[in-house]
Amino acid sequence: MVNFINIHFGNVKFQRNFLQFHFSVDFDELNNWSCVPVILCCVGVSKPWFILQTCSAVFEPRTPLIDLGHRHCMFTGGSPRGEAALLIRNGIRFSEIDLKTGLHAAAVTISLAKTLTVCSLYLPPNSPVSKLSLTELFEQLPKPFLVLGDFNAHSPVWGGTPTWMTGEDVEEFTAENDFIILNSGEQTFVHSAYHSTSAIDLAVASPSIAAECSWAAHSDLCGSNHYPIFFNIVLTF
Fold first, then answer.
1. Which of 70, 142, 233, 237 has the most CB atoms within 10 Å of its CB?
2. Domain span at residue 154?
3. Keyword Cell inner membrane, does the record have it (predicted)?
4. Max Cα separation, the chain?
5. Which of 79-83, 177-181, 231-235 has the lowest mean pLDDT?
6. What is the CATH number of the domain that holds 50?
């Protein structure tokens, strides 16, 4: 899945993008972007600030820089394979947040005209998540924030199939805290075996920026089983 985010500050438009995607390659192969042609295309065309991912890629520990001028921070869970990661474009000021959580999450606060926290979150399928664990994670994210990722959560509230357990927990958690799910109801995922669709990739925003965000899924899978997702954000100051 690929998420594109344009950011605006007041009347000044910054042509910058965030990307989120799923892939599974070794770190050495990641430096050869031809192994992920969709990502190569996105990076080459839109010049993103971030690449957020739910992945099983093997990274060298704390590698400071990879090709195309990106650094990374990631959740590893004690393994060289990262379940959630962010690639931050070189030259962008940011600070990594040392999350105290059992969830698969990585987060940074970026410094622009204003600060913005971005968190990549992966909730594995068939693994129940409690509202308490979500609360503990979100309380560590400075506002305003965006939390993007594969929640593997089903609910009609955001266009999914009948509500499953994780979907209920996410529904209740966001409602109780006035967090906003940005999804428009479009499907985000196609099951490769059954060709069924679902909406399991979510974008959650803190209230102060939610009204300034727009969300839309692309009509083409672009070689993935998750649809690219487009964001537009206006931050005033």
1. 233
2. 3-235
3. no
4. 48
5. 79-83
6. 3.60.10.10
